[in-house]
Amino acid sequence: MLRYLLRRLALTIPTFFALMFVTFVAIRLVPGDPVEVRVGERGISAERLAMFRHELGLDQPVWKQFADYVGQLLHGDFGTSLATNQKVLVEFAALFPATIELSLAGMLFAVLLGIPAGTIAAARRGSIYDQTLMGLSVTGYSMPIFWWGLLLIMFVAERWGLTPVSGRIDLIKYYFEPVTGFMVVDAWLSGQAGAVKDALHHLVLPAVVLGTIPLAVIARMTRSAMLEVLNEDYVRTARAKGLPAWRVVGLHALRNALIPVVTIIGLQVGTLMAGAVLTETIFSWPGVGKWLIESIGRRDYPALQGGVMLISSIVIGVNLLVDLTYGLINPRIRHG
Amino acid sequence: MAEQSPLRAFWAAFRENRGAFAGFVVVLFIVLVAIGADFIAPHSPTEQFREAVRAAPMWAEGGSSRFVLGTDSLGRDMLSRLIHGARISLFIGLAVMGVSFIIGVALGLACVSFQGTLGNAVDVAITRLMDLIMAVPSLVLAILVVAVLGPSLTNTIIAVTVVYLPRYVRLVRASALTELGKDYVIAARVAGVGPWRLMFTTVLPNCLSPLIVQAALGVSDAILEAAALGFLGLGAQPPTAEWGTMLADAREFIRSNPWLVTLPGLAILVTVVSINLMGDGLRDALDPKMRRS
């Protein structure tokens, strides 16, 4: 196991270096001089320009700049935002809990609906339930979620008035200092009456929108994993023993079918992060996705560079964790 | 009894799948609309009718048959814009698919073609690069590419191609590796077939079925991704009638003119669902093992 772990870790290192290289090159290819972006377009003396260049390290040879960049990253320095003059890491860390909260809620929605839906579809294979659920699954998988979000806002929030349109909590009614960064937890900690309910109300629509594609993927995966397992001998044995159908399907089969499903759930992190960009933009959810888009609008390239670097590192890290867990559960993987 | 031709067998299996066939019919319809956009569309997609800004669709109160689906905030005919949008979306989808298919086959085969230390180095370099691209969330990578190149239709195609390239490369590499171990390839080698011929004439045709399925599904993914970029203002620029961009323009009228938001999204959804249904049908028909599962 240790050898598998080390080998898997060693494989990640070149990926990280390549990632650093790509973000480094990408930002250098951006049209426009970073110094001019920083000091504005007004006339500026040659000495001051040279000073800024020196300050940003742009008078160094390119390989030296890259080495410095890697050195900074390894020290946890992801650059300084041009717009706010704050460290990118600090800004990111302040906004990231909002994205995690949204992603967890979306994933919860996807898992709680997706696994039962896939199980029912497999157990009643070919029935009207199966056909309806799989039809819905294709629709969900094909959903332009930015449109889905607008549609839900239009009906659920605007027309029926069931949920708020945007944001994380009603800021006029409730105010408290962030403790964990998770609005639902903070609302609970604040002890203000109705705060938790309000936070949850704000969370519902974005979570449904973000969870839609993972829901479709999980439902499909559960169905095909269940269909495979339902043909196994031990399922036949369980049936032959006279166990009720819900026990055979819900316990004996489902438990074994869940291994590939759990892997798929882990691998949805990338989908969640990509979806968060759109979902947060639609619902004005103050997370890293919305921040990334706003950084482009402000031509804040260090923020964009650091943001892409951080988001990708997190996704790589989670995928690595999923792989290792899978290796732990299933010994056959280790000796691949 | 005469052997059924493979194409016929495929068509029979495909027709049997109702969802796939329905998807195929809708896709065919959209393709025809896209090709004939100039003749079908009642108005120009960019002509502004200042006297009829945000007109209601025909069936709604105040609507007229002049603008069947109403007009947008600049008085442009929605129906004409949607029809021309089909052309743009399909063009993006097909362009991304075509380019990634070609580059994917080239890189995938390059991974397995060379022998010795050089071959190993090429394989590792390409595989690592693809792993890296896969590690960055699709839309985030596309955003980075567009931020570097600037937003435009061409750059959308480039960005989305970069994002979806690894799927093709991995697929070609994996199936080529499997095929290379088979007896007929060894036989061809022994018979003295050169490396180019071996790869493109002997091995490649046997890797095609999963690749065709991937290509079909890749078109819908590309359309969806490009529309998302357009929605974020990073795709095709106004006044281009692109569905995602149209949605972004319509956002502020979500309360007053809901159809402005509803129609372009519906167009995206219907197109993507149809292509996905067709792709699923292709997979089932091309891969007998997957059939009826």
Task: Summarize the structure in words.
The complex is a heterodimer of chains A (336) and B (293). The model of chain A has no long low-confidence stretch (mean pLDDT 85). Chain A has helices at 2-29, 34-39, 46-56, 62-74, 88-123, 128-141, 145-159, 183-190, 195-230, 233-240, 245-266, 269-283, 288-297, 301-329, 331-334. The two termini of chain A are 12 Å apart. Chain A has 15 helices and no strands. With 293 residues, chain B is an all-alpha fold. Chain B is built from 12 helices and no strands. In chain B, helix 10 (208-231) packs parallel to helix 11 and helix 11 (243-250) runs antiparallel to helix 12 (258-286). At the A-B interface, helix 1, helix 6, helix 7, helix 12 and helix 13 of A face helix 5, helix 6, helix 10 and helix 12 of B.
List the helices and strands and how they pair.
The complex is a heterodimer of chains A (336) and B (293).
Chain A: H1 2-29, H2 34-39, H3 46-56, H4 62-74, H5 88-123, H6 128-141, H7 145-159, H8 183-190, H9 195-230, H10 233-240, H11 245-266, H12 269-283, H13 288-297, H14 301-329, H15 331-334
Helix pairs in contact in A: 1-4, 1-14, 5-6, 5-9, 5-11, 5-12, 6-9, 7-9, 7-12, 8-9, 9-11, 9-12, 10-11, 12-13, 13-14
Chain B: H1 6-16, H2 18-35, H3 37-40, H4 78-113, H5 116-135, H6 138-149, H7 153-180, H8 183-190, H9 195-203, H10 208-231, H11 243-250, H12 258-286
Helix pairs in contact in B: 1-12, 2-4, 2-12, 4-5, 4-7, 4-10, 5-7, 6-7, 7-10, 10-11, 10-12, 11-12
